[in-house]
Amino acid sequence: MLIDFFSAVGDVLSSESTYINGALFAALLAFAATGEWVAERSGTLNISVEGMLLSGAFAGALGYHLADSVVVGLVFGAFGGLIIAVVQAQMSHRLTADQFVVGLTLNILIVGLTGFLDREIDPRADRASTVEIPVLVDIPLFGQALFGEPWPFYLLYGLVPLSWWLVYRTRWGLELRAAGENPQSADVSGIDVNLRRRQSIYYAGLTSGLGGAYFLFAQIAAFDDSIIRGQGFIAIAAVIFGGWTLWGTMGGCVVFAGALSFQLSLQGLGYELNTELLQALPYLVTIGTMAIFARRVRSPAALAQPFIRGLK
Amino acid sequence: MTRGARAAEWVVLYALSIVVALAISSVIVKATGGDWWPVVEALVDGSIKAPGRWGETLGIAAPLLLVALGTVISAKAGLINIGQEGQLLMGAAFAVFFSFRIGGPGPLNVVLLLLFGALGGAVWASVAGLLRFWRGVPEVLSTLLLVFVAVQAVGYGLKWQWLLLADEASRGNRNLVSEQLAKDNRIPRPDIFGNEFPITVYVALALALAVAYVLARTVWGFRLRMLGHNPRAAQRSGVSSTVYGATALAIGGAFAGLAGAAMFAGGGFSFGNYRLVPGFSDFIGWTGLLVALMARERALPAVVAAFVFAMLRTGAGFVNSTGVESRITDVVQGLLVLALLVPPAVVFLRDRRRARAAATERV
After folding, report:
1. A221 pLDDT band (50/70/90 cuts)?
2. Do B341 and A115 touch (CB under 8 A)?
3. Cβ burial B105-141 (10 Å sphere, 16+ → b, else e)
4. Is A291 in CB contact (< 8 Å) with chain B?
5. What is the pTM of this model?
6. What CATH number should be reported for the domain whose range is B57-323?
7. Chain B residue with minimal CA distance to A116?
8. What is the CATH number of the domain that holds A236?
């Protein structure tokens, strides 16, 4: 039994498809987690990221359906995420409704809405073409996963550094972090705290929508209202895992995606281990790592605390 | 502004936002080439007017209400439990395990079965409570992730005869199914004017009153609310956030578990026909959460909200015949909850602006 297990792990780790699957999920998580990280640095725990991913995936399919082009699909996807972000941001950071309640409701609403529209419209999409980066793609094991992907994957190589630059190297990013750490002081120094928070949610909407559309074009190419299945929440967990640093967040995406792809590969290679345990594995790993890391890191001081001027 | 004018204003605002939510739904139906009125008629037919339907609706409203009541309790303590779906499933699994592996026949068994269900939900929610207060894991995430774990755990249980799986004789050629609950172990479903529903409907109503009373009129409820409103002040005045928070989460889970057990023992054809099957929870946990949100986390409005959402659910079965996809009801549910968030926020902001204006004038 134990030897079986080790040989199974060995097989999985030496199988290229493990890394390809891992990269697929890691990229989905990374798109969402990058935006979520920006949003959380501004002090809002944006749980509608799940709905943004789903909306992005559906809008992506719709865009492809209408224009027969992956580029249009991705643009639609980003806007699909943005629509959710606008509702979330306006309701929670202008109308002062509870951000969790708004986020939860949006998540559930989007499952119903995309499911309804999917059956009424039935958009068809197609996979995006694969672009292989010469030489690098020939690296054993990792090459195909990192440099032989459907082309929207490579947007991440620009998006992640861009997010870092925005948050750490621009005035906008400084104000955004001030809103997340000490909204009262930020307000006194003339920063519109809720405006910065709304903008950070818009950013999360754009990246998550893009991520949802990427996932659609990279893998399944047919929309289904269960394609995201809680990945948005795992992206939030990745931000916590990463201690609210961008690189840590990306590390979290890799770890959680690794657990998911490990489970898929094990089944793909025909190992008859306990399937229920394996399917629960990504969630258990997420819970376990949060149990270890949640207290060790410092979150933005005003995370998830609404800011209303004059009230403390 | 007088009290009456204020109350009237609330009614107008709420009515307006409901109308807007329904208008948006109708636009969505129109945009996809359907007609809105037949959908509404089908909803009313399917939920109330057609024979036997209002009993059906009540039978679905009961577990929704139970789940919502649990959500109200944990929300009052400032905790965001969104794992009701998993807690409900665990409750049902505990109830099944008790019925077939421990319990005997008779009415006492029904009561014990329900208690075991509540225990199951409480245990599952307490995992999140433990992680929250011992390790600092946000309960928003842990309760949710535990839903997926619960689904797998129950799936695992349904594979082994010593856990939940029925023996070969009684499962026939079906896999992953528990035994069927014996007739004398079921929750009675008396027939009233051709409508039958389990008596858990009354239990749920009584519990709604009890929860409203406990939260509004007892010391425990007061402390819970204090914890939710201002954790720091609560802590200073001796309300332990760990003790009260963990208890509130556990009770919230117990309500969801109770709903699961009641669905198993009294759900009839709506829920697995007295058997535990994969997908047994059937989104009752999620919808119950929405019910609590729509009721703005108060116990008595949750009664109304639960009935409305149950109507949308039983009505959905009739919507397909109008040529419109029945999932439109999910959209209506979500939009209703979102719309009802608006009036309190609008009133709050306007009152503040007025107060500020008055304050600056005086200076």
Report:
1. low
2. no
3. eeeebbebbbbbbbbbbbbbbbbbbbbbbebbbbbbb
4. yes
5. 0.90
6. 1.10.3470
7. B327
8. 1.10.3470
